[in-house]
Amino acid sequence: MIYCYPSQNTEIKQGDIFVGLPWFDFSMDKIKILNSKEVNDVNWSDVVGTNEAVDALLTVRPVTAIVANQDCDNIRAKYITLCAILPFDEVFSKKTGTITQRDFIKVTTKHDRINLKWFYLPNDNKIGFTQKMAVDFFATIRVQRVELEQLRNFRKGTLNDTAGEHFREKLSEFYRRYPYNEWYPLDKDEFLIYKKDHPEAKPYSWQR
After folding, report:
1. How many domains does one find in the chain?
2. In 3D, which of 116, 165, 187, 181 has the Cα closest to residue 15?
């Protein structure tokens, strides 16, 4: 498939896939702060005003993630950023288990070009992907480089050259994409037709 399986001695590179990394899950509305022997639910806005570090109880769960940093940063940077890898159905808007194989092929070819928010990863038992997966570019974690280097046994695979180039370009497109409303150049009559299929669209002054 699109994966390679590096040895533990290989340097960390962009596209490396790690399993079991810590994902911190908490709400800023209610953070459990440790105060002496008590635990109090506190809003983060009340904590940040003190400008001091606090001890808190956070939920941590393991997550699979892929290295987003460029290779030069993975050698010397203090931190490495990774993007979470989730089941494809959690990232894609439609449940792929209910569509035909032909339709799924369209999803992973056409939609992969259009939608810059995710990167498709096929299943691979050697890595531990028992189902179709996807990189969620919105979901990132940051770990210390030195500590990640000590966990290279958690690296189960990496993207091959073809997939690696695609991942790098799509990641860069995600961060430099220009947000715009696709209906802005339509005239008033064209917009009214467009709005029938996109009721959430709001007209510009020249379309009213």
Report:
1. 2
2. 165
Q: What is the token pair recorded at 156? A: 């189960």
Judgement on whether residues 187 and 117 belong to the same structural domain of the protein? no
Contact 161, 15 (CB under 8 A): no
Q: What is the pLDDT of residues 48-65, one digit of tens each?
A: 877 778 888 889 999 999
In this prediction the pTM is 0.83
Rounded Cα–Cα distance for residues 51 and 161 (Å): 46
Containing structural domain, residue 192: 183-208
| Strand pairing category for 133-144 and 56-57 | unpaired
Residue 152 DSSP label: G
For the stretch 134-192, pLDDT in tens is 999 999 999 999 999 999 999 999 999 999 999 999 999 898 888 889 999 999 999 99
200 and 99: one domain? no
